[in-house]
Amino acid sequence: MKFRDMEEADKLQTQVAAQVEPEPPRSRLSLLLERALARVRVLAPWFSLSLGILSAVIMERGPKAGGRIAAAAISVWLLILAQRWLARVPQSERVWLARLTHAARRSSLMITQSLLQMKLFFALPFFVQAADLGEPAHLVFLFLFVALCAASLWDPLTEHWLSRRYLAGLLPATSSFVALTAVLPGLGLSTFSSMWIAAFVGGIGAGLLLIVHAPAGQRLQRTPYALLVALTLPAVLSVGASRLIPAAPLRLAKLEFGNQLKDHWVVQPWKRGGIAPARLFCATAIASPLGVHDRLFHVWRKDGAVRARVELEVRGGREAGYRTASRIPIGPTEAGRFQCTVETAGGQVLGGKSIRLTAREGPS
Questions:
Q1: CB 3.0 to 4.6 Å from 260: which of 37, 132, 267, 316, for a disulfide?
Q2: Is 168 left (phi over 0), alpha (psi -120 to 50) or beta?
Q3: DSSP state of 215
Q4: Angle, vertex CA 19, rays to CA 15 and CA 23, nearest 5
Q5: Backbone phi, then psi, for 355, in 5-degree steps?
Q6: CA separation for the pair 155, 160 (Å, rounded)
Q7: pTM for this one?
Q8: Quick one: which of 298, 286, 348 has its CA closest to 322?
Q9: Whole-angstrom Cα distance, residue 48 to residue 157?
């Protein structure tokens, strides 16, 4: 019985094998091309990584590049929407059409990644220079910024994020926000207005992308969530998060204390504390690109409490920084830690310095 069962199984296997057509022999050239393509797929991310780093180093960051970066901040959303449309195009039975669709998908992804890298790496040096390394929030911001820059250099990770429903808007929204924040002040807008415009552009783009990622029958249901995503960045700014963001493209070049002023600078800067003078001056050199006209303030604090807020007149274009100064009166018995901080109208901090002073006279 067992022998008969084995015989039947052998006959069935022979019939199945006869129905399967053997693969036609492949030429040596086709095998070599297949191996070459496999190696190219492995090396492509590393080539893209090297090219991205080189482009970041030699990139032009002058005033002429501002318009190009602003255009990239908008066009990247159009490219991502085109990618989503191409991803939903059904696979054609015609070989040439299938290859054309595949090539369009890959090329659009490469262009999108190139624009993301251009925006991120254009803005990175401006935020590094504008950051106050004494502010822990600025350090956290720079760490996250650098991490996203590194992620944009690795093709598989970028492709994975752009294909995910909830992660698709992360890189384009962040890159648009930092690029417009750094570029728009050079085009005549204040840092405050630039930051809000950048927040709305990044938020609205991410919200639209959330709707596009949803199936056709569920897009209307996704609208409230998309609206929530679109308003997230502006809402965060409205509760004071602007203080966490360096005031790019502005930069605090120098800050000094003193008791005498000449040509908008202290005569003999105080390196250490001492006896409190009748008037304490704070002189700052603030560097900014040509065309920047912003409202900046010297915020004076004594032992952490705000003592005065003095508006400054700053015009961009001076490479060493535009010099400006303010002063506060100090009473004979006043003593403590006095701090002068440069801040924008939107609450962003460029930097500051403190000095500890002793009273000129003892308490009566």
A1: 267
A2: alpha
A3: -
A4: 130
A5: -145, 140
A6: 8
A7: 0.75
A8: 286
A9: 12
Length of the chain: 364
What are the beta bridge partners of residue 14?
A: none
pLDDT per position as a tens digit, 109-128: 677 777 888 888 888 989 99
Strands 349-358 and 274-275: parallel
List b or e across 119-129, with b for residues whose CB sees 16 or more CB atoms inside 10 angstroms.
bbbbbbebbbe
3-class secondary structure, 54: helix
**H-type helices in 88-231, by residue range?**
95-130, 136-152, 155-163, 170-183, 191-213, 219-230
pLDDT digits (tens, 9 = 90+) for 168-206: 778 888 888 998 998 888 777 888 888 999 999 888 888
Residues in Cβ contact with 72 at an 8 Å cutoff, skipping those fewer than 6 apart: 115, 118, 119, 179
Closest CA to 334 of 268, 280, 255: 280
- Judge contact between 256 and 327, C-beta under 8 A: no
d(C-alpha 298, C-alpha 282), whole Å: 8
Q: Would you tell me the crossing angle of helices 155-163 and 28-58 to the nearest 10 degrees?
A: 90
Contacts of 210 (CB under 8 A, 6+ apart): 165, 166, 168, 169, 222, 225, 226, 229
Rounded-to-integer distance, Cα 127 and Cα 343, Å: 15
Smallest CA-to-CA distance from 61 within 128, 9, 5 is with: 128
CB atoms within 10 A of CB 150: 14
Could you tell me the two tokens for 119?
């925006």
Is the peptide bond preceding residue 249 cis, with omega within 30 degrees of 0? yes
